[in-house]
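Q: What would this complex look like in 3D?
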Amino acid sequence: MSKIKQRFVALPKPVKILLWVLLALFAYALPLLEPPIISTPGVDFGGVLFVVTMYCLVAIGLNIVVGYAGLLDLGYVGFYAIGAYTAAVLTSFHAHWPLLLAIPVAVVVTTISGVLLGAPTLRVRGDYLAIVTLGFGEIIRLVAVNSEWLNQRKGISDIARPPSIGGQEGLFEIPHLFWGDGTVLVDTKDTTQFLVFGVLDQIPYYWLGLTVVIVMLFADRLIKNSRVGRAWEATREDEDAAELMGVPTFKFKLLAFATGAFVGGLAGSLYASRQNFINPDSFLLLYSILFLAAVVVGGQGNRWGVLVGAILVAYLPQRFREFDDFRVLAFGLALVLLATLRPEGLFPPRRTVRAKHLEQELEELEEGAGGEESARV
Amino acid sequence: MSEAILEVQNLTLKFGGLTALDDVTFRIDEGEILGLIGPNGAGKTTCFNAVTGVYRPTSGGIAFQGRSIVGLKKHKITQQGIARTFQNIRLFPTMTALENVLVGTDAQHTTGMISALFRLPKHRREEQDGHERAMDLLRFMGIHRKADELAANLSYGDQRRLEIARAMATNPKLICLDEPAAGFNPAEKVELMNLIRRVRDRGFTVLLIEHDMKLVMGVTDRIVVLEFGRKIAEGTPAEIRDNPAVIAAYLGVDEEDAS
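A: Here is my prediction, written as structure tokens for the whole assembly.
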């Protein structure tokens, strides 16, 4: 694994970019290719992939809060719900705004809710914060259950879809592949219209979700490698020491919370648009836990790790649908195994990996009467 | 007479019924190395904590460069120019040595989310300034070859050095070192003494808590002695060495052994 990584890092920059572009293209083409083992039998593959991108988005956002800033948030689904409900209320229930106008508003509303929740609660630490956020997630759902303005349990339907490009027919049709016994055919009857956000074909939503994920990955990288990212990390490692080194820790914790809420709200509003219908049951506590599982399973603090975590958590239960309820059992077992065998997640941040490397090197050096030490005066 | 950079006036600090600091008054002049000594539990670190804003004084005043800093937030005090190290090393263990120092340089920076996200000129400028200063400080402390190593993986001595580098990175006027020589062998202590002098020569004023009498006597310009939260003596190292109260309280009966 690390050898592959080393070889990749050693490649010249244009080659690296080319590989990334190819990977992205493959990701975009995935629902058209419908490769036999990866594809989900019995469930719409495009729809599964869309859900996967939403989990990826949420994992990126939650990773900022939990992985970077070290704030345990057990109510992340609350932000997801606020984004979804804002989009639903604005495009269907109380007004008929176009979705592209409603999404920015939904995101802003969610960000503000993040600040409102964070301002009083971020003064408490650790376990207490976890409890407060846990309550927040439930409160949001219960408000939706009880508020007539949000149509209670009946939920909200007819949420606006993104505007299609090229009218009802789209600009052109893209055929899917058909995998027969040992043959691969281009199936001209099974096509996706570019770019129609309709009821049946979910692939355009997947493309939209994937695009947002890619944009967020870039943003995440830019923020992480800056004063903001360092301040988060310092706060996570030792809040008091960070404060004494001139880091306004409260401000940065609030910023992390708001950023997480921003991403969560964005994911929620996209999800609402795709589902076309939401009710309080779309935002159960279970989802908070699944989101957190995605981050922890992948390796909190590493953006690629949490992506893998999100893909596993969202995809595997759909892939193995035929096992029904045993899926949940298997999932639980897998989590227990993971916690025992890889407590830092599947792909811990590079630092943790590098720390282990260094430990090994140091041990080797010590055996060979280290030259490093004697060089120091 | 040079100007006072820090003035502590009748500082009293009580934790419930316990008086940790009792009416302590002293000043630090610009450019000097002031030693703060005393037996265990005398209130040295408490005094540090009051100065850096960790504890709020029960009564009394602390003025930095003529302005009161009582009640200011910890990071504000740091930004105004007081930096410190810790008695028990408190680095950010999962960050590299360079990143630890960068956090220090960030104290004087203002890059926020927007600047970072869009890589605005401010971000570039501050990032470059930070890297240059951080590498410079690491070189000054002699640990620049370990810039990319995790703080947790540095040797004990290098961790101590890194803490001093990180404190200096916040661009302070006054730097408070809390027992920087703890756990050092005699050779390393001599090296540290020279280092503290060089820190002063760079234009920092130094407040030094230290147990090792040889180190304190050798490096400081003046010494303040605390016992049970009270100041019992103040003066040059030579004066302190001959002060009977100090000998009784701190150095013990046999002066030779203690020094």
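A: To summarize the key features: Residues 161 and 274 of chain A are 7 Å apart (CA to CA). Strands of chain A lie at 172-179, 184-194.
Q: Very helpful, thank you.
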